[in-house]
Amino acid sequence: RVEKVRGRSAVTRCFAKYPLKIIVPSKVGPASSGAVWLYVLTYGGGIVSGDKISCAVTVGDGCTAAMTTQASTKVYKAVGSKCSEQVLE
């Protein structure tokens, strides 16, 4: 969740569990942008057979957020009938 705190966009709630990790660095880009940055990472460098990743992000009125990954997300070959899923809301 991104909300205004002391006139600036700030992450006020952030939760992730394996295989997902979210990093919110304190200093990214020009301070004048006022944007909060969220880096979404996966352990092992990609989505593997059976992973189910779901992200829900709420950005409040007047807030700015940028959500990205370190690099392109790799999707590895499925094993048997174990499908993978990734959802961003």
Automatic annotation (TrEMBL):
Keywords for the protein's UniProt record, in alphabetical order: Chaperone
Stored InterPro entries: UreD (IPR002669)
Record's keyword annotation contains Chaperone: yes
Keyword Coiled coil part of the UniProt annotation: no
Domain of life: Eukaryota
Gene Ontology MF terms in the entry: nickel cation binding
Family statement drawn from the similarity comment of this UniProt entry: Belongs to the UreD family.
Name of this chain's protein: Urease accessory protein UreD
Naturally occurring in which organism (per UniProt): Aegilops tauschii subsp. strangulata
